[in-house]
């Protein structure tokens, strides 16, 4: 069996290692350059590869193709493969049959990384032999090849879910859905929503779907679709006999006739959106039979996720916050919503079809100055130009942070929450966040 892998990044190389171990004839092809550390792994494992090209003769003879999530279905090579009837899978679909571990799959437009890390923290603290992967950290396929975990917590992007056929998590979570990546879905929001719900398409009556019952897109989907999975909703406003909710500043969870309550003041994560993430993760912990005392302790000592509302430093009584992971408007909405001081907001990057008007009321209420950090800031300036007193364009992170320091006064917050992808000026959101933190430390 010939396995061809398009994309020599984390998921591609992980799949190559698993494929080789399972006896496939493996070939890795990347249109760009393959990073040095990944090349070394391929060479040591005697896996054939090429970079900066796709040689058709070596690809179209595949029995199965794993494509990296970054490659769209519209790309010419994918079209040719599909026309030949070659099955094109995601890493998740390829790797899942090779493990009998319990899989917890987490998707959503925002909150999925925090929920994934918190869920992993809850299960690991309870002594479970649990791996974490998918859209973050070490590739799932790589871990299936080399580790023997009893369960996995996987963060799953819509791109990864687009490439599944039989994959089914025992427990699925949809944190929320808001317009994102619409450029990959023919600018049709319903296509993107359907893509997220693929996480539950193969689930049976023995499986669970945990979801945000306050979310408009999710609620609408349920009006015309069904899933066989047992439903566990969570909400900030509604209450359930089976599900999770907040009432009188307490998180209350009722699952399979078992109750769990905890004072929200003792939960380490702050902000309304994080209460939702905590309810989702705790619902998993309850399904996995984790002791209440362990859950309480883990929720109170969780450190949060880097680049997500990460407090960097306080300088001259101004708090600097790194929210570089906010790559869409909805994520920035949560960030601005959780500010309770006058805010200098650093925003901008590659716009994915954003509607900034959703942020208007929060910007009027909380933002004193806007610093645009992007190659093209026209849209942001058009929307907020008359709303804030100060609007400045910069082209480097150092300039953004220095300007923010000038515009801020004691008691203010400087918030990097770009609402955009980072690829115009940075490698990725981590690079953007790290540059912000370094610039703050240099002040």
The secondary-structure class comes to alpha/beta
* Shape assignment: globular
Integer average pLDDT: 94
How many helices? The count is 17
**Low-confidence parts lasting 5 or more residues at pLDDT below 50?**
none
Question: CATH superfamily of the largest domain, called what?
Answer: Mur-like, catalytic domain
CATH architecture call of the largest domain: 3-Layer(aba) Sandwich
CATH class membership of the largest domain: Alpha Beta
Total strand segments: 20
Which sheet architecture does the biggest sheet show? Answer: 9 strands, mixed
Report the helical percentage.
Answer: 25-40%
Explain what this protein looks like in three dimensions:
By secondary structure, this protein is an alpha/beta fold. The protein has three domains: 2-89, Rossmann fold; 96-301, 3-Layer(aba) Sandwich (UDP-N-acetylmuramoyl-L-alanine:D-glutamate ligase); 310-441, Alpha-Beta Complex (Protein-Tyrosine Phosphatase, Chain A). It contains 17 helices and 20 strands. It has helices at residues 10-21, 36-44, 56-59, 76-83, 91-95, 112-125, 140-146, 158-162, 189-197, 216-224, 272-287, 292-301, 329-337, 360-366, 378-384, 397-407, 429-441; strands spanning 2-6, 25-30, 48-51, 64-67, 87-89, 102-107, 130-134, 151-155, 171-174, 208-212, 230-235, 243-247, 250-255, 258-263, 310-315, 318-322, 343-347, 367-373, 390-394, 413-416. A nine-stranded mixed β-sheet has the order 7-8-6-9-10-11-12-13-14, covered by helices on one side. A six-stranded mixed β-sheet has the order 15-16-20-17-18-19, sandwiched between helices. Strand 12 and strand 13 form a beta hairpin. Helix 1 packs parallel to helix 7 (140-146) and helix 16 (397-407) packs across helix 17. The longest helix is centred in the middle third of the chain and has 16 residues, at 272-287. The mean pLDDT is 94.
């Amino acid at each position: 069996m010939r396995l061809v892998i398009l994309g020599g990044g984390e998921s591609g190389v992980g799949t190559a290692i698993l494929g080789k171990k399972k006896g496939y004839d493996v070939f890795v092809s990347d249109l760009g350059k393959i990073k040095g550390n990944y090349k070394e792994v391929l060479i040591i494992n005697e896996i054939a590869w090429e970079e900066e090209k796709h040689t058709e003769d070596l690809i179209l003879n595949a029995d199965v193709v794993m494509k990296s999530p970054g490659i769209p279905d519209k790309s010419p090579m994918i079209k040719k493969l599909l026309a030949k009837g070659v099955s094109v899978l995601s890493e998740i679909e390829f790797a899942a049959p090779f493990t009998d571990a319990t899989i917890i799959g987490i998707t959503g437009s925002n909150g999925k990384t925090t929920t994934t890390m918190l869920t992993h923290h809850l299960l690991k603290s309870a002594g479970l032999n649990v791996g974490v992967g998918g859209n973050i950290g070490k590739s799932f396929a790589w871990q299936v090849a080399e580790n023997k975990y009893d369960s996995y917590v996987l963060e799953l992007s819509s791109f990864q879910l687009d490439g599944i056929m039989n994959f089914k998590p025992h427990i699925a979570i949809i944190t929320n859905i808001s317009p994102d990546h619409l450029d990959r879905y023919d600018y049709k929001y319903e296509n993107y929503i359907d893509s997220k719900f693929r996480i539950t398409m193969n689930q049976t009556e023995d499986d669970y779907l945990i979801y945000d019952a306050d979310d408009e897109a999710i609620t609408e989907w349920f009006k015309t679709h069904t899933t066989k999975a047992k439903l566990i909703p969570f909400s900030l406003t509604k209450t359930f006999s089976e599900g999770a909710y907040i009432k009188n500043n307490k998180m209350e969870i009722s699952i399979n006739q078992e109750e769990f309550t905890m004072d929200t003041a003792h939960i380490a994560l702050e902000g309304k959106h994080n209460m939702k993430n905590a309810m989702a993760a705790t619902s998993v912990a309850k399904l996995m039979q984790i002791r209440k005392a362990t859950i309480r302790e883990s929720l109170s000592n969780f450190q949060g996720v880097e680049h997500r509302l990460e407090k960097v430093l306080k300088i001259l009584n101004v708090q600097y916050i790194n929210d570089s992971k906010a790559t869409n408007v909805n994520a920035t909405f949560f960030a601005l919503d959780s500010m309770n001081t006058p805010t200098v907001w650093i925003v901008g990057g590659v716009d994915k079809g954003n509607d900034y008007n959703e942020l208007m009321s929060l910007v009027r209420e909380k933002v004193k100055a806007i610093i645009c950090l992007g190659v093209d800031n026209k849209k942001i300036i058009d929307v907020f130009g008359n709303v804030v007193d100060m609007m400045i364009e910069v082209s480097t992170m150092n300039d953004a942070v220095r300007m923010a320091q000038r515009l801020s006064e004691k008691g203010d917050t400087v918030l990097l929450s770009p609402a955009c992808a980072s690829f115009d000026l940075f490698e990725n959101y981590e690079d953007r966040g790290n540059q912000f933190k370094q610039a703050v430390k240099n002040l």
